[in-house]
Known about the structure:
By secondary structure, the chain is an alpha+beta fold. Helix content is 46%, strand content 14%.
Amino acid sequence: MDLLDTYKKVTNYPFGRFFFNKGIGFVSPFFGKLKPNVVDLKPAFCVVEMKDRRGVRNHIGTINAGAMCSLAELRQCQ
């Protein structure tokens, strides 16, 4: 079963999107630190967001480039 099929099945249930997003962190703890939120997932289309919080900021107060690259890499995992 691939990621898209799992997303379609899980999001049909109440709190499905929440559990799908938590499942990403369970399967890959590296992405779990970003606390990603998959907003939409379709073939060849993915919208992922993360909250601006202290854990993803660098020493000068901006979003860490590594966190942004990791978020972009998560989009490629579909």
